[in-house]
Amino acid sequence: MTQDPRENYTNVEQKSYGVEELQVVGEQLLAKVKELIHEGNVRRIIIKQDGNSILELPLTIGVAGVILAPALAAVGVLGALLTQCSIEVVRSESPAEYVANKVEEVSDEVPPTA
Question: Residues in domain DUF4342 (predicted)?
């Protein structure tokens, strides 16, 4: 039986509107960063160890995977080297607002039924 990797992520602190800090084990770092990128409402990811910034990934809407490939390779190397680190996530909107906006977008695209 496989364990859900999200169970190991702990939301440590909601710092301010749109900013949260997650604790991850080094080997799960790359998977979590990829997950955050796919969420779509993340503007910046900052990887820290002992409070010091190690890597900052600015994300913009429409960033191509080709552009992110070197950054993700660096995250993979960091994950192999670090035992425990934190990820500071800066969002363009709260997760609830993001979901509400996506639902509204999709509902506008669905034709009414007769």
Answer: 19-91
